[in-house]
Write a structure and sequence with these properties.
The protein is an alpha+beta fold. The protein has a 4-stranded antiparallel beta sheet, covered by helices on one side.
Length: 85
């Protein structure tokens, strides 16, 4: 069974670093999404070094098996997210 873990960041650089660490931990990039909107199903706006100010704060979502949720949340938490759910 899969679960989505979503983290909201204050800065694009923190979200980018979290994505890099997830990929370094062998989390497939196909299950990692980086976006600016609170709802990943809404229009996705790419973020860059602008801090993600084109529509809100940057988010990273990861869809993983339940047994990997704690590990993914731990990686995301290392980058100072505002919220992880």
């Amino acid at each position: 069974m899969t679960q989505m873990v979503v983290a909201e960041f204050d800065a694009a650089s923190a979200a980018d670093a979290a994505v890099r660490d997830l990929e370094a931990a062998q989390i497939p990039s196909a299950v990692i999404r980086r976006y600016v909107n609170a709802d990943p199903d809404e229009r996705i706006m790419p973020t860059g070094s602008d801090g993600g100010h084109h529509g809100g704060r940057p988010f990273v979502s990861v869809s993983v098996d339940m047994i990997h949720v704690d590990a993914v949340a731990g990686i995301l938490n290392q980058h100072g997210p505002l919220d992880v759910r």
